[in-house]
Amino acid sequence: MAELIPIITDILLSAGAMALRMGPYLVLGLIIAAALGNFGPSEKLHRLMTTHGLLAIAVASIAAVTTPLCSCTTVSIMIPLLAAGVPWGPIFSWLIASPIISPTGFILIGGTLGWPLAFAKVLTGLTMGIGGGILANRLQKTGFLAHQSRVPVAAGISEANSPAMSDPTSQEEAGAIASACCETAENLAHSSSGTPGDSIRSFGNALYGTAKSIVPIFILFLVVAAAIEQLVPTAWISSLFGEGRIWGVPIAALLGVPLYTNTASAVPLVSSFMGLGMTSGAALAFILTGPGTSLPAMGAVLVIARWRLLAYYLAVLFTVSILFAFAFDLLLAS
User: Which residues contact residue 303 at a Cβ distance below 8 angstroms, ignoring those fewer than 6 apart?
Assistant: First the structure.
């Protein structure tokens, strides 16, 4: 037992050092996310997403990667659009881009793993959203993605052919889903009145609610990451994910599925892996496929879509993630 004390001490000291290095970026990210949470998707954004063509897809992709919305709120946004007959293009763009990156994740990844990795993640998310959305529209026209929505189209509206907003029933259903499983809808309701008191209260509620769910997991995985640094031989990681290991990126992409909980847990793990020899490309693959295949993200897809669209979602996620991860390694090596 006595021989374990130095090991445990080293792990805790390493975890404390990582907390000092990563903690400020997590706090900054949480503050920015809470502030942005007061400005939920506006009616103007809804109108832009109901237009047809590339504009709606681009708007959905950009909005998805810049707003700190939970998967439940994503569903609540999509239900009225699907009921209004909006085609799969912008819907798919939002579904796949939203879990990939968030303001909190961008700050935390950039500050601890490097800003090139953070910007690469944003670029990959936008590519998935815009490219996947364009292809989704075409696949819907060919019939492959036709009738894949679980949301009934409002009466008098033909599927994928209406710029109108849905009926009030669908909007009430969407709001109920959001308020039932995350605090975003309540925060937006408080901030909608526009009074300073309500805005401050909404900001405080959002900050507390997010921190309450993220910080304990962040602390736990700091200890796990520190243990990996202390106990796992460098040769093990470099042999799997090191330079020249062509299998490193696909393996990292697959490992992201079971090991990823959220960005706060993934960043300490990836930081330890990179310290032991993981390439930046493999790290990118891990932090791309992990959030896209998390239970909340997959649940959001299946709430509104059927299995064929889920298969297309996974194909786009893994294909684009692996290709961009290889390209990122090549870019850094040149």
Answer: 75, 150, 177
